[in-house]
Amino acid sequence: MSKVIIIGAGGVANVTAKKCAQNDGVFSEVLIATRTVSKADRIVEEIGEHFPNSKTKFSTATVDADNVPELVKLIEGFGPEMVINLALPYQDLTIMDACLETGVHYLDTANYEPKDVAKFEYSWQWAYQERFKEKGLMALLGCGFDPGATQAMAAYHAKHHFDEMHYLDIVDCNNGDHGKAFATNFNPEINIREITANGRYFEDGEWVETAPLEISQDIYYPKVATRKSYVLYHEELESLVKNFPTIKRARFWMTFGDPYIKHLNVLEGIGMTSIEPIDFKGQRIAPIEFLKAVLPAPESLAANYTGQTCIGVQVKGKGKDGEDKVHFIYNVTDHAETYKEVQAQGISYTTGVPAMIGAMLMLRGEWMQPGVWNVEQLDPDPFFAAMNRWGLPLEELSGIELVK
Description:
Residues 4-140 form the Saccharopine dehydrogenase NADP binding domain. The chain is α/β, with parallel strands linked by helices.
């Protein structure tokens, strides 16, 4: 039985907290801390309403995750074994600093990026390796779905299917409909920065940069649909090619509908996606921060969401029998079903469940090792078993090349 702090109270935190409530044999007490405590209070109210038999005790608190002394005071006052960071990626380093100072383990779902530069890389967090190791603490980076489960899929491929992985493609399809003209499925500021940045993929030992959404192809997503998919840069590519050096090419693909792209192009064209602050009535504000304020909150989309997501990893390479092989591991999640279970849309669900699983595996000792780690560096088998147990069943497809 373990005490944990969840920092953040958005759509993903809502899912992770409710899955902790379901898993009360591991999580005895959970404190949800955020800048706007009313959001955390609402999550706790819903847990009491939908999971009245849970033995997990929940409480809430206000915290500024940019402020290390304030984080330290919060952690010391509650005394958790670990912090699950579901705040903004800009705040990863301050929360890691607070965990080091207080002697608690750390987990997040997205790598650090500076607020003023759209730059996704692990170097800042990997630099904490020795400090966490010396204190006997563990930091698990990027334990959502992508990153997170996708890296476990790569590790599972390497452990059970391939002697050498040569071509790796991560595919992410949201074939859902939230009924809005334009909205993002997770934090708008982070989502739009990611999409409007240049694409990048790894090939033959080098990173190849592309214009935003320059490369596309139609991909069949099993049990869902065939959808036009675009190459983006995603952070897990950086760690995967580092930890699996036989990879010759690694790409990340995501689906977007034409109306979404049209809206995005207009917003970008008039400067609303810019991260450069401007003067507005005596205040400095980045246009993308204003845009975030007027767009629907991702968690507000859940009630009317229909359709499915399909996220998976295709690998081509040399199989365990020495023959050429192609294999695909994936999950399909239904938005309406996740709303029934935890009052969340499927994008939040597929990120929030792996965060709970990663924390559980750390707390039970199955994944616990001092230092800073990415998911693919750990044994994928208990993670796969937990995915199947806790609402994200995995399926496998062999011999069919879905991504060209």
